[in-house]
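S.,

Sequence below, as promised.
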Amino acid sequence: MIRTFKPAGIPIALTLLVATALPVAVFADPDPEPWSERAIREDVDINALAASGEDPITVLQPLGERLFAARFTTLDGAGRPDATGAVVPTKARRRSHSPFQRLAGMDANACASCHNEPVVGGAGAFTANVFVSEGFESADFDTIDPQFSNERNTNAIQGAGLIELLAREMTADLRRQRQDVLAKARQSGNTAKTSLASKGVSFGSLTAYPDGTLDVSGLEGIDDDLTLRPFSQKGVFASLRQFTVNAMNAHHGMQARERFGTAWTGTDDFDGDGHADELTSGHISALVAWQATLPAPTRKQDLPDIWQNAAKAGEALFGEIGCSSCHIPELPLESLVFQDPGPYDTAGTLRQSDVVSPLALDLGTLDWVKALPRDDQGRVLVPLFGDLKRHKIADAANDTFGNELLAQRFVARDVFMTAELWGIGSTAPYGHRGDLTTLNEVILAHGGEATASRKAYSGLEEQDRKSIIAFLRSLEIAE
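The prediction came back faster than expected:
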């Protein structure tokens, strides 16, 4: 049943027109004036939506887009005077003298304030950088000193739904391999070892003992629990939902009930701003749905012949010098059904056990997904130019990417996720701090595991290096 509220001064006929346009699970907020400065005016009951049979994409996507672009105000609950930006609900030791600041936040009115280049949902300029304490509970700082915070540039979100689906499938695959080696060790009574790999990406090895214990010292580029966490530049967030709940609190002071509400903190106003339950599970699901359905980056069309020829040669060289060993051109995806909440959402984020049934967003119904290539098994080939794996990309000889002093979630400061290169032609500047202005600079900044490829690139003739840049510049986010 539609729930609707008639703002004062609006004719009943218009109110009914608005009501009939709303999907079954969406309801308008009871704000008394149509000129209100509140940004949040709608909500959605995700349990009712899941039971209704309606397509959750058509219901959630428009609401999520409005929320992503909304400029939140204090009337919505923007601000967190008594709370920090930490991912774990944490009280501030002292109230900030200013509600907005470029240090520990709040640092933005809207998601689109930073994610806006070349389109909403994209990357951000250096001026949009944030200073983050990387999730430690002591997220209460007022300095840009790298001992207390890491400076980060804005990532683009295009294609994020496919990225999360790939990560879910790879996680399930690796965990099946773990179960197999454990079963082998128990049944044989001997130590068993297996090489872990999924979708052609190696994650090292795992050793199992007959007593059911595991030696995880051979793992590479993944956490000990074998969960791929594809979001953030350090690869520490498993889902768009977790990423969204974190970001809404850190950057806007908008707190999700599923983490900061009574069930976890004992109060419905943890940040002490006078607004209870600022973001419902419906609001978060709408934001997740919009991000998950953002079209994947593509390739520039109608390039002049000189650029097309250079890009073709550059793509071949990109593989020959070893760049594609990490920046894998495409990974196969079995299923296009995006469940929300997802199977690997954890405490502090809405989980599948918290709802009657998860929403099922079928990304295969989207035109841009239908246009993606498929392999001979019918799997969608996701052209991400990445491997969803962490790598050490800095060393003593080339420490450009090792300039952070704080480790994030126990990930070493010189270790980062392989950046997906789709769309890189649209997302300058480069590097996790956004302080590298050209693609040539960012390639030459690679160290650690990427040293051999960087040296191979450096040893190319100038025209060959230019052709690689031409190839990378052809990977764009469509406007």
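The two ends are 38 Å apart (CA to CA).

Coffee later?
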